[in-house]
Write a structure and sequence with these properties.
- It is a single chain.
- With about 60 residues, this protein is mainly alpha-helical.
- It has one domain (about 1-55).
- It is about 80% helix and about 0% strand.
- The chain has helices spanning about 1-25, 25-55.
- Helix 1 (about 1-25) runs antiparallel to helix 2 (about 25-55).
- The radius of gyration is 14 Å and the shape is elongated.
- The model has no long low-confidence stretch (mean pLDDT about 90).
Amino acid sequence: MRGLQLASDTVLRLATQAHAAVARGDAASAELARMSLEKQLELATRLIDELLFDGTDHHTVH
C-alpha cells in the first residue's frame, strides 16, 4: 500500500510539473514531464492491479 501512495504522490507531482511547463510555454520540459508521467502511471496501474487482483491475470482498464 505504501508503494501505491508513493506512486500516486509522484503522479501528482509530475502532472503539476507538466501543467506548469505548458503554462510557461516550455515544450521541452512539458514533454519530459509527460513521458515521466506516462511511466509513473503505468507503475501505479500495476500496483493497483496487484492490490485488487492479488497477482491474477485481471488488469485495470486504462
